[in-house]
Write a structure and sequence with these properties.
The complex is a heterodimer of chains A (109) and B (115). Chain A is mostly beta strands and 109 residues long. Chain A has strands at residues 3-5, 9-13, 18-25, 32-37, 44-49, 53-57, 60-65, 70-75, 84-91, 97-99, 103-108. The chains are: A mainly beta (109), B mainly beta (115). Chain A binds chain B through residues 4, 8, 30-31, 33, 35, 40-45, 48, 50, 87, 89, 91, 95-102, and chain B through 4, 40-43, 45, 90, 97-109.
């Protein structure tokens, strides 16, 4: 079956670095997405990886290893506004998104 | 307005009521989606419309009925719902369904409570 695993909840300190892991098993692979969702708001697109390696976008970076079925989202210089849920989704061979249940990130001062 | 707009933001209904959720996108996208989001569960894809034609219906109970009158508007008609249907219903749109870089733009959702 198809499956996405990510931690349910993580806590980090303002100014620090946090890495949110995601492992996936899908029928075929057409890319890995990360979305951010603040409480009561719409999920918003953060990153898309289809090739192995690290993609950096400001304070946020996303990494992909296709051979390991693994991705992570790295958040640097954490700010209070980064408190949100982070959703990992893998796109299968039919271009269907398979979603994880999301990781709730709590930032403490 | 820009982006994806959903109304109402909150809805409480009894099991015998009939109501509708509305979604409007101002992005010129070709595809629109309905997702169900329940606490601590993955997003569940309900329906997909591409160029106003339904292309996906993931075994959703018939008490949910979608309608896509044009490429900018999407409705979800609700009737005789069950308490377990209480959830956040998210609408999304995208430019390139069926491609790898198919980025979804979501609305803020309609929070539905069924009593």
């Amino acid at each position: 079956g198809q499956n996405i695993d990510q931690p349910t909840e993580m806590t980090a300190t303002e100014g620090a670095i946090v890495q949110i892991n995601c492992t996936y098993q899908t029928s075929g692979f057409n890319g890995l997405f990360w979305y951010q969702q603040h409480a009561g708001e719409a999920p918003t697109f953060l990153s898309y990886n289809v090739l192995d390696g690290l993609e950096e976008k400001g304070r946020f970076s996303s990494f992909l290893s296709r051979s390991k079925g693994y991705s992570y989202l790295l958040l640097k210089e954490l700010q209070m506004k980064d408190s949100a849920s982070y959703l990992c989704a893998s796109m299968d061979s039919n271009y269907q998104l398979i979603w994880g249940a999301g990781t709730k990130l709590i930032i403490k001062p | 307005e820009t982006g994806v707009t959903q109304t109402p933001r909150h809805l409480v209904m009894g099991m015998t009521n009939k109501k509708s959720l509305k979604c409007e996108q101002h992005l010129g996208h070709n595809a629109m989606y309905w997702y169900k989001q329940s606490a601590k569960k993955p997003l569940e894809l309900m329906f997909v419309y591409s160029l106003e034609e339904r292309v996906e219906n993931n075994s959703v109970p018939s008490r949910f009925s979608p309608e896509c009158p044009n490429s900018s508007h999407l409705f979800l008609h609700l009737h005789t719902l069950q308490p377990e249907d209480s959830a956040l219903y998210l609408c999304a749109s995208s430019q390139e369904p069926g491609s790898g870089a198919n980025v979804l733009t979501f609305g803020a959702g309609s929070r539905l409570t069924v009593l």
